[in-house]
């Protein structure tokens, strides 16, 4: 009997999950709350509740050569780094090639996913969905959660004393779409992730002055590497990985720091990461260094407090007449359709084996796909996740014991992977 799989979301993870289900002889049904595929990468002018939101200018940080799915390279005429509209075009070609659209139910919201009464023996789920105002229930043998982690904004206003009396405009980076309307403004961007760097660089071309507040700094890399090749094609080679694994740690750290500072010296601009060798996600931005060099963007320390019109920083400096604050402070994991006991989220960390499987389930029939931030493209990684999950559902692959899985989760949460793929103690918080 063919096993039925519910796939929640039709973005990157959802599309490749559909294909892997079909490849493994499973019967998938994808529930997509909007009217189209693409997820995070489909730009819309308006911010929608429950859906990821991007700004118009977003370009991929990983090259097309390293970002395509394994058996479907991107078209030759596509540029190395893709505007979000171009990546969406690839998804459309991919979905058409493998005839995936027939498995997707659009404008259908998953309300809840619950274990069936006989779950301990069957591993089955009741999936409740809503479409056109009507609620329906269907039974599935497995569930793949592909809803992503860029939906619930993390807006830590309690960490910014005086925000209630600040008279300017403030909002989360999720709300940002275009630089129009910010001409002549003095703008503070809080955070130093990719969104923060992109938004600060874009606004600095129109604003009177842009400030970036960071508590931890970050390595900033160019998309363009040696001889004009994309950075990830140079960084992610078997030879480079072998070197990082066999050379003494001190030598590798020295080499990596030199490489990171070759483009511009981070220390000169207050951007040296607090823990230099933890690279949770580097900033890929070709404009930021030049905007810093001629003062269009100024790096500031952590915000201490706000007044009606000014921002006071931890180093004692004050910037007056700030008009706008953009909180590029990231996102929190959220699964509103799952019972709390299924996927536990504490301190913005998920209790999942290999970031995929809840360890305490009697049957391994639920998997989260795409809750990762690899150093490089997410595409190959989510494809491997989807392949593994579907084979676990089929019974071809088996998970270890709950004790082994819990031990692995504890170890991963205590440590973070550094630049060289080796674990180090976690010293950075999740804010920015």
TrEMBL record:
Pfam families: FMO-like (PF00743). It is a single-pass membrane protein. GO terms for molecular function: flavin adenine dinucleotide binding; hypotaurine monooxygenase activity; N,N-dimethylaniline monooxygenase activity; NADP binding; trimethylamine monooxygenase activity. Its main location: endoplasmic reticulum. It is an enzyme of class 1 (oxidoreductase). It is found in: Endoplasmic reticulum membrane; Microsome membrane. Keywords: Endoplasmic reticulum, FAD, Flavoprotein, Isopeptide bond, Magnesium, Membrane, Microsome, Monooxygenase, NADP, Oxidoreductase, Transmembrane, Transmembrane helix, Ubl conjugation. GO terms for cellular component: endoplasmic reticulum membrane. Its EC number is 1.-.-.-. Its cofactor is Mg(2+); FAD. It catalyses: hypotaurine + NADH + O2 + H(+) = taurine + NAD(+) + H2O; N,N-dimethylaniline + NADPH + O2 + H(+) = N,N-dimethylaniline N-oxide + NADP(+) + H2O; trimethylamine + NADPH + O2 = trimethylamine N-oxide + NADP(+) + H2O; hypotaurine + NADPH + O2 + H(+) = taurine + NADP(+) + H2O. The keyword Lipoprotein does not apply. Broad spectrum monooxygenase that catalyzes the oxygenation of a wide variety of nitrogen- and sulfur-containing compounds including xenobiotics. Catalyzes the S-oxygenation of hypotaurine to produce taurine, an organic osmolyte involved in cell volume regulation as well as a variety of cytoprotective and developmental processes. Belongs to the FMO family. This is Flavin-containing monooxygenase. It comes from Rattus norvegicus. The lineage of its organism: Eukaryota, Metazoa, Chordata, Craniata, Vertebrata.
């Amino acid at each position: 009997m063919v096993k039925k799989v519910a796939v929640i979301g039709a973005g990157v993870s959802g599309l490749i999950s559909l294909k892997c289900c079909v490849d493994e002889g499973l019967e998938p049904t994808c529930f997509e709350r909007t009217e189209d595929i693409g997820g995070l990468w489909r730009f819309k002018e308006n911010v929608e509740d429950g859906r990821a939101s991007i700004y118009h200018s977003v370009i991929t940080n990983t090259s097309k050569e390293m970002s395509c799915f394994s058996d479907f390279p991107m078209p030759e005429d596509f540029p190395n780094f893709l505007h979000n509209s171009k990546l969406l075009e690839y998804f459309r070609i991919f979905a058409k090639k493998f005839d995936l659209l027939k498995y997707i139910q659009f404008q259908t919201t998953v309300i809840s996913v619950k274990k069936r009464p006989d779950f301990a023996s069957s591993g089955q789920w009741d999936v409740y969905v809503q479409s056109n105002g009507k609620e329906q229930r269907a039974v599935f043998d497995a569930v793949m959660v592909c809803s992503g982690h860029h939906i619930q904004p993390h807006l830590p206003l309690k960490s910014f004393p005086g925000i209630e009396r600040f008279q300017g405009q403030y909002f989360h980076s999720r709300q940002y779409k275009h630089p129009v309307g910010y001409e002549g403004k003095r703008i503070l961007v809080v955070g130093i992730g990719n969104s923060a760097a992109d938004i600060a660089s874009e606004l600095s071309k129109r604003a009177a002055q842009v400030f970036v507040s960071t508590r931890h700094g970050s390595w900033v890399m160019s998309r363009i590497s040696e001889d004009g090749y994309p950075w990830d094609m140079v960084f992610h080679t078997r030879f480079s990985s072998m070197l990082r694994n066999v050379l003494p740690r001190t030598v590798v750290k020295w080499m990596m720091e030199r490489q990171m500072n070759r483009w511009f010296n981070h220390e000169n601009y207050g951007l040296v990461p607090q823990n230099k060798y933890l690279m949770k996600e580097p900033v890929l931005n070709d404009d930021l260094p030049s905007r810093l060099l001629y003062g269009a963007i100024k790096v500031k320390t952590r915000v201490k407090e706000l007044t009606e019109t000014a921002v006071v920083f931890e180093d004692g400096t004050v910037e007056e007449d700030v008009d706008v604050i953009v909180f590029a402070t990231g996102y929190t994991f959220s699964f509103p359709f799952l019972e709390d006991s299924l996927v536990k989220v504490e301190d913005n960390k998920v209790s999942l084996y290999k970031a995929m499987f809840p360890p305490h389930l009697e049957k391994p029939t639920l998997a989260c796909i795409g809750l990762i931030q690899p150093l490089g493209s997410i595409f190959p990684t989510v494809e491997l996740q989807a392949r593994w999950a579907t084979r676990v559902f089929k019974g071809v692959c088996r998970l270890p014991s709950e004790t082994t899985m819990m031990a692995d989760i504890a170890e991963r949460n205590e440590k973070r992977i550094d630049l060289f793929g080796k674990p180090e103690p976690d010293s950075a918080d999740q804010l920015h």
